[in-house]
Design goal:
The complex is a heterodimer.
Chain A lengths: L1 H50 L5 H5 L12 H32 L4 H14 L3 H16 L6 H25 L3 H9 L4 H30 L2 H7 L18 H9 L5 H32 L5
Chain B lengths: L3 H60 L2 H6 L3 E2 L6 E2 L2 H32 L2 H16 L2 H20 L9 H25 L3 H9 L4 H12 L1 H17 L2 H6 L17 H10 L7 H30 L6
Antiparallel strand pairs in B: 1-2
Helix pairs in contact in B: 1-12, 3-6, 3-9, 4-6, 5-6, 6-9, 7-8, 9-12, 11-12
The chains are: A mainly alpha, B mainly alpha.
Chain lengths: ~300, ~325
Amino acid sequence: MNKQESIINKRQKLHAIRVLRDRIFVVGFALAVVVGILGLAALLFDVLIDGLPFLNINFLSSYASRKAENSGILAPLAGTIWIVGMTALLTIPIGVGTAIYLEEFASKNRFNRLIELNIANLAGVPSVIYGLLGLAVFVQFLFNGSRSVTAGALTMTLLILPIVVIASQEAMKAVPSSYRDAAYAMGANRWQVVKAVVLPQALPGMMSGIILALSRAIGESAPILIISSLVWVTFIPTSPDSKFTVLPLQIFTWVSQPQHSFRGIAAAAIIVLLIVLLSMNGIAIWIRSKYQSRPDQ
Amino acid sequence: MATTSEIQSNRDLFERVARRRRRQHAEQTVFTWLLRAAVLISILTTVGIVIILVSQSVGFFAEVSPWEFLTGTEWAPLFSPQKFGVLSLVGGTLLVAVIAGLVSLTLGLGSAIFLSEYAPERLRRVLKPILEVLAGIPTVVYGYFALTFVTPILQNIFGHDQVIVFNALSAGLVMGLMIMPMVSTLSEDAMVAVPRSLRDAAYALGATRFEVSTKVVIPAALSGIVASFILGVSRAIGETMIVKIAAGATPNLTLNPLESIQAMTAYIVQVSLGETPQGSLEYKTIFAVGLLLFVMTLAMNIVGRWVISRFRQQYE
């Protein structure tokens, strides 16, 4: 009797320890999420505290200056619009075209698998390497040393192309194959099926992928830094041949200044950049959720 | 019996249909070639990267022996006497990347377990997008955060004489925060793929949630978790702006994360910002360093994806 009791006691103790360990680790795992969210909150807080005092209409409409108080982001804002506009014009047809070919036209042979593998690898190449590619191929080879908007946009296009291709492929994979079969049964050829059935159905998914890719292009600084290498720009780009700077590059320049006064305007520029990017992300998520849940799919 | 005019109109109709068919076929042919041209661009990108990096590096290695480059521990290409030991740059890069990898693995795995094993669906749907925001913030902003927020805190903890303004720890910690959502998503995908029945079997034996997580789910999802760590470190190795802004510009082979270092990417950017004439040896160094960086990240990405596909458990 005594022996049995002690065994039961032991069991109960062990059980209590196991339950306690379970409870402790719940807190531990939850803490990982909390640390992530606190990190985000600290980052936003840090930027807002430093930057809000400098954020006014003059800041948006003046050029960079040697004095922090007089500085503004007109030139980098215009440069960013130029770059993202041209990048969109180049990336969308090429990226969507590549995705259409791989998803709808290519047979699943070894060569086409190799192309898909190649695109997956390109998505993992560090952005600074694209900067080197752009410097050597576009700036020095094609444009004879001119560090132009076009060279920047071409480089950005190559950088975000894999993201657009992969997102567009995902969107097309989600179109049910019965839709395609129905069109083929009516006598449509491959291109007609793509044009009239697959693309309209896949459009929302593609758009959200493209917006996310473009927001990546807006926030990317390393390749532009190598391509442009201009740190004080006091003019708006007027043509694709103009020299330029972009918001992240201007932020980098100000952060690198030894005077602390420039940190405030760097933070103000970060606020502008984050507003643009977060609203783009918001639109992408909205598009995805609006068109995602269709009853018939 | 059909009249001649009826036969004529039928023939017209056939011809119209045939013409339209031909036009549609021609349209398809044209667009197929345009699509092929689009695909060609991604192939040319890879070819371009390899040709540019290799051709410029060949010029560099004609003047500096690869042995000196890969085994030397001092890097001073812009001073005389010039030294081309890339190990001090690689060391700096790896020091930051390992810190970032450990931070992102701890936070990412912890949050993946919490989100997939503990959190109710509604909480998960709120928390996940918030964490995803971290992945969308530009790296230059993280650099600012490391320099103006994390470094002062580290200086208060370890003492201002111990922590240099530009240090590897601050950059590594912040980079870990940046990579966390990626590690978390990849690990969570692997855990969600573990079938319900395995968990239920363990619960039926009286296991706690912690025991189910650590003894059933994590071992079953281990390949995905390992891969997420490898891909995260690869991402950290290629990251530029955080290390450029917060980790310094002092090539330094050290294990002390409180010291200033220079990462490979930061060196490339530093030279591009200066007035280094095209074709000079200094100019070629950035392509040699770039080639090494490209090979390192490519190898890790291939290994990461191989681990995912090779060790993926197949469940019915």
